[in-house]
Amino acid sequence: MDKEINVLALVKGEEKFIFMFDDANRDQTLRQLARFAANPELDFSWYDAAMLSRKIRDAVPVEDDLLIDNELDNLSVEDFS
């Protein structure tokens, strides 16, 4: 098997959320996190989605993510005044 598969898991009480993704379906996985957060029947918050999204973006960065991270790294307090 040449393809690397990433596994990300979250356990909240009785619910377990396991996401398996590779480079090709990274964006689909990010959208699924948002769908889970929007579902009131799941114990999956927007905070959970944000934290897992960050882990996915760190595991499989794309050029846009790297550009945004670089821009954010260059911000200072004066930029918000």
Characteristics:
single chain, 81 residues, alpha+beta, 3 helices, 2 strands
Descriptive report:
This protein has one domain. It contains 3 helices and 2 strands. It has helices at 26-38, 46-59, 63-73; strands at residues 6-12, 15-21. Strands 1-2 form a two-stranded antiparallel ribbon. The longest helix has 14 residues, at 46-59. The radius of gyration is 15 Å and the shape is globular.
Compute the number of structural domains. 1
β-strand amount:
15-25%
| Strand runs, count | 2
Shape: globular
| Widest beta sheet: strand line-up | 1-2
- What's the pLDDT, averaged over the residues? 83
Could you give a short description of this structure?
This protein is α+β, with helices and mostly antiparallel strands.
